[in-house]
Amino acid sequence: MNVADDTEERHPTLALDDTVHQRVRLGILAIAREAESVEFAFLKQELGLTDGNLSRHLKVLEDSGLIAVNKGYAGRRPRTWITLTPTGAQALDHELRALRALVHRLEAAGPHRPERDEPQAAVAEPRAPRGLGARGSAGVGQLTEE
């Protein structure tokens, strides 16, 4: 396929958005879509994250306009609620369409069954970074016989 040829269908992975597709952020958006708003503590528990890790991902999504973060109180306890924005809902829908297209493409191609006589692709042994010697690359890229 010629990259400049627009008559060819683009590979579905090209439609994936790195901001949305990252596992934790995709989880945040999916959970936020299931509810009107979701508490920070619930997301932390549901996704198995630390406070700092979740906060960082929320900041990325908020800066991208995909979620709104609201702070307040439930009684005397401070709470943080996360809400999916209309832009976030659109981005999540776009991501889901791209994933469905990828699944459809793979299912249409059928299962991959390598022929028994088909040669296995060789994997080049990576070079160890300077100063690490052989210890720095132990087990990386080694081929095993099945």
Furnish the topology, listing elements before pairings:
Elements: H1 18-21, H2 23-34, E1 38-39, H3 40-47, H4 51-63, E2 67-74, E3 77-84, H5 86-109
Description:
The protein has a 3-stranded antiparallel sheet with strand order 1-3-2. The chain starts with 17 loop residues before the first helix and ends in a 37-residue tail after the last helix. It is of the alpha+beta class and 146 residues long. The chain has helices at 18-21, 23-34, 40-47, 51-63, 86-109; strands spanning 38-39, 67-74, 77-84.
As a percent range, the share of strand residues is: 5-15%
Give a short account of the largest sheet. 3 strands, antiparallel
Helix content: 40-55%
Helix/strand-derived category reads alpha+beta
Q: Order of strands across the biggest sheet? A: 1-3-2
Oligomer category: single chain
Short key terms for the protein model shown above:
146 residues; alpha+beta; 3-stranded antiparallel sheet; 42% helix; disordered C terminus
Question: Concise description?
Answer:
The protein has 146 residues and is an alpha+beta fold. It has helices spanning 18-21, 23-34, 40-47, 51-63, 86-109, and strands spanning 38-39, 67-74, 77-84.
